[in-house]
């Protein structure tokens, strides 16, 4: 059994990580260890570079807190101004003792009312709860689930990026530098 440390106590991030690993490595079994790890970036990253840095920082912090694991996963959600609209996405970083995998989720745009609150400094999850009358949506279906009627929820959005971050682990002969 391999140990997978997820740098968050959010059950959505832990489940998305486990699902992605199980899809890519169905013959393996994984024990998931969720733990709180700092991102080292703002509570609501406002561009892609800051969001990626947050995911990498979380994974590195998880490795420092639980060094005996096989993999460490950092997931960081962010937003970015694009053509006057606020785009939403997340970065996933997967570390192992010898490699680093990274991938970004799909992107969607926030409704103007939510975007306005985020631009005012309110974290996206809180803004969603205000506009949609939800409670703690970031630990459930998230903005994407609220906007799609759960056709895609937050776990599914993250799971896809976890799979993509594992491409180099699945194909190590093609990524010999350990960065993918």
UniProtKB/TrEMBL annotation:
GO biological process terms, semicolon-separated: nucleotide metabolic process; thiamine metabolic process
Q: What is its EC number?
A: 3.6.1.73
Under the heading Pfam families, the entry gives: NTPase_I-T
Q: Does the keyword Magnesium apply?
A: yes
Q: Which UniProt keywords apply?
A: Hydrolase, Magnesium, Manganese, Metal-binding, Nucleotide metabolism, Nucleotide-binding
Amino-acid positions noted as binding Mg(2+) in the UniProt annotation, renumbered to this chain: 68
Superkingdom as given in the UniProt entry: Bacteria
Q: What class of enzyme is it?
A: hydrolase
An MF annotation (GO) of this entry: nucleotide binding
Q: Which residues form a coiled coil?
A: none
Which reaction equation describes what this protein catalyses?
XTP + H2O = XDP + phosphate + H(+); ITP + H2O = IDP + phosphate + H(+)
Q: Where does substrate bind?
A: 8-13
Q: Non-canonical purine NTP phosphatase/PRRC1 domain location, by residue?
A: 7-168
Name any cofactors this protein relies on: Mg(2+); Mn(2+)
Cofactor note text: Binds 1 divalent metal cation per subunit; can use either Mg(2+) or Mn(2+).
Give the InterPro entries listed for this entry: ITPase-like_fam (IPR029001), Non_canon_purine_NTPase (IPR002786), NTPase/PRRC1 (IPR026533), YjjX_NTPase (IPR050299)
> Belongs to which family?
Belongs to the YjjX NTPase family.
Q: What does this protein do?
A: Phosphatase that hydrolyzes non-canonical purine nucleotides such as XTP and ITP to their respective diphosphate derivatives. Probably excludes non-canonical purines from DNA/RNA precursor pool, thus preventing their incorporation into DNA/RNA and avoiding chromosomal lesions.
Known partners and oligomeric status: Homodimer.
UniProt cross-references to HAMAP family, sorted A to Z? Non_canon_purine_NTPase_YjjX
The protein, known as:
Probable inosine/xanthosine triphosphatase
Q: Which organism is it from?
A: Longilinea arvoryzae
Source lineage: Bacteria, Bacillati, Chloroflexota, Anaerolineae, Anaerolineales
């Amino acid at each position: 059994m391999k140990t997978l440390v997820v740098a968050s106590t959010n059950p959505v991030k832990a489940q998305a990580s486990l699902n992605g690993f199980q899809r890519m490595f169905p013959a393996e079994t994984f024990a998931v260890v969720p733990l709180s790890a700092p991102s080292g970036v703002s509570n609501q990253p406002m561009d892609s570079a800051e969001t990626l840095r947050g995911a990498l920082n979380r994974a590195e912090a998880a490795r420092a807190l639980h060094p005996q694991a096989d993999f460490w996963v950092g997931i960081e959600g962010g937003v970015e101004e694009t053509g006057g609209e606020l785009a939403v996405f997340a970065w996933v970083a997967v570390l192992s003792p010898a490699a680093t995998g990274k991938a970004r989720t799909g992107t969607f745009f926030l409704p103007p009312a939510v975007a306005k609150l985020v631009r005012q400094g309110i974290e996206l999850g809180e803004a969603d709860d205000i506009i949609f009358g939800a409670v703690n949506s970031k630990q459930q279906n998230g903005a994407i689930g609220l906007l799609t009627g759960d056709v895609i929820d937050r776990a599914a959005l993250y799971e896809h990026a976890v799979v993509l971050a594992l491409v180099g682990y699945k194909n190590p002969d093609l990524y010999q530098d350990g960065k993918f």
